[in-house]
Amino acid sequence: MRGPVAPPQVPLAISRADTFDSLVHDSAERLRRRLPQLAGVDFGVQEVPWLPRAAGPPGAADVDGVPLGGVIRARGGQPDRIVVYRRPVELRARGREECAHLVHEVVVEQAAELLGLSPESVDPKYGQD
To answer: Which one-letter DSSP state was computed for residue 68?
Structure first.
């Protein structure tokens, strides 16, 4: 027998990628309610960062230098975009709750970078466990 293991309405049927997208979307919506300047900013997810040979893109990075997120500035009619890299974030998180916390921190850091503010002014709870 081939087919889905669980019906589509059951949480088991939701992929890790969909769950991660929801975490980024929820975090973005929390920040948009706080900061109207983020209304026109596009928030997205990429599996992994694209790293040119010379240097990585600007963004949050761990001690190994692999970015967890990045900012793509508006150009050619495209809005500013904040990107969270799914695989590097998931590899650092030990569970769903830790992943949600890390996603929010990356989104806050990238929003702060985009707006030229400190992460604490974007979200006063930044850095608190």
So the answer is: S
User: Is pLDDT larger for residue 14 or for residue 101?
Assistant: 101
C-alpha separations of 74 from 4, 77, 86, 114 in Å? 40, 7, 22, 10
Report the pLDDT value the prediction gives residue 8, as an integer from 0 to 100: 62
- Biggest CA pair distance of the chain: 55
Write out 23-63 in H/E/C secondary structure: HHHHHHHHHHHHCHHHCCCEEEEECCCCCCCCCCCCCCECC
Distance CA 100, CA 97 (A): 5
In angstroms, the CA 43 to CA 1 distance is 39
CA distance 125 to 100: 14
Residue 66: which pLDDT band, with cuts at 50, 70 and 90?
Answer: confident
The chain-wide mean pLDDT, for the chain, equals 86
Residue % of the chain over a pLDDT of 70:
78
Among candidate residues 12, 42, 19, 35, the one with its CA nearest the CA of residue 97: 19
